[in-house]
Amino acid sequence: MKILLPAHRRVTGVVASVAVGTLLLTACGSSVTAQQSPDDAADATILENCDREVVVDGVPEAAVGMHPAQTELLLRLGLADRLAGQAQAAAQALPEDVAASAEAVPVIGGIEPPSREDLLAVRPDFVYSPTTYEFTAEQGFASIDQLQQGGAAVYVATGGCFERRMTGEVTDLFADLENLGRIFDVPDEAADLIARSRTELDEVAAAIADVEPLRVAQVYVEGTTLQAIGAGIEYDILRLAGADNVYGPEQEAFSEFFAATITPESLAAEQPDALVFSAYDEDHKAATREYLTTTFPDLPAVREDRLIAVSSADVFPGTLGNISVVRDIAERLYPDVF
């Protein structure tokens, strides 16, 4: 399988996960649970996160969101005054309703994760990341061990744990919110976010309950290289949106990794009713749409104008975008029921 690595090296969305997948092999697993330490319950929370025991001493006062999606979650939990930094801030704009509350939070790093020196300089006591790539020492980033030695607890989104990457679900986000609620002592705020997200998913499920599922392929295009997505959170997003996935984890091509390079001929043979593709900016979206329309003019997806673009950031593990993109796709697939 050929693995894509775009020249601009954005650490968002599908391509970032493909590029760094092998780096996650030894770094994390699938279990993410939280419990209070029996000996020191009032002062510490003990988490099992990506096959690591994480001890959070007290309520963090200098947290860092390692991606805007994680920063957004911390802001929505009312933790702006406990943020010491927001990383990769140029990778994705914060939603307008929370952006103002982050204006005083130092920005560390642009599109890529911050350097080791820049992250350690803000003296974090809690670092919340979408994947373990952000801690790759070979890339010049602070490793988990280095952060722990500096007094920071490190938490990775459930869907960003390698073993969970193949079987991840949209609702993995709820485990993260429950854990954050415990860590920061904001259980009511976390429960409210979970409840609102569950309601949104339930509304979509009710709307599409009686539709005839359309066959949908999810792809990623970089230049003229075409990849299919057949497992993980991306697969679950399509499932919840009422799609009959063309590609799935039961297929050999996705038995070991959630993405695989395919030929245009193989996609054309599937004749999907719709194509969902992720894009990291407007230029990439336009280029992908141009490639798909010119390469596959006879596909039902192209003829019926069912080319559905989603933001790469919204399929990144552990984001509220995982919830909203389910509705976005469902509305495009089945406009008559919304």
From TrEMBL:
Q: Which domain of life is it from?
A: Bacteria
Q: Which InterPro entries match?
A: ABC_Transporter_SBP, ABC_transptr_periplasmic_BD
Per the UniProt record, one Pfam family is Peripla_BP_2
PROSITE patterns, from UniProt?
FE_B12_PBP (PS50983), PROKAR_LIPOPROTEIN (PS51257)
Record-linked SUPFAM superfamilies: Helical backbone' metal receptor
State the family named in the UniProt similarity comment for this chain. Answer: Belongs to the bacterial solute-binding protein 8 family.
PANTHER family assigned: IRON(III) DICITRATE-BINDING PROTEIN, VITAMIN B12-BINDING PROTEIN
UniProt protein name: Periplasmic binding protein
Q: What is the lineage of its organism?
A: Bacteria, Bacillati, Actinomycetota, Actinomycetes, Pseudonocardiales
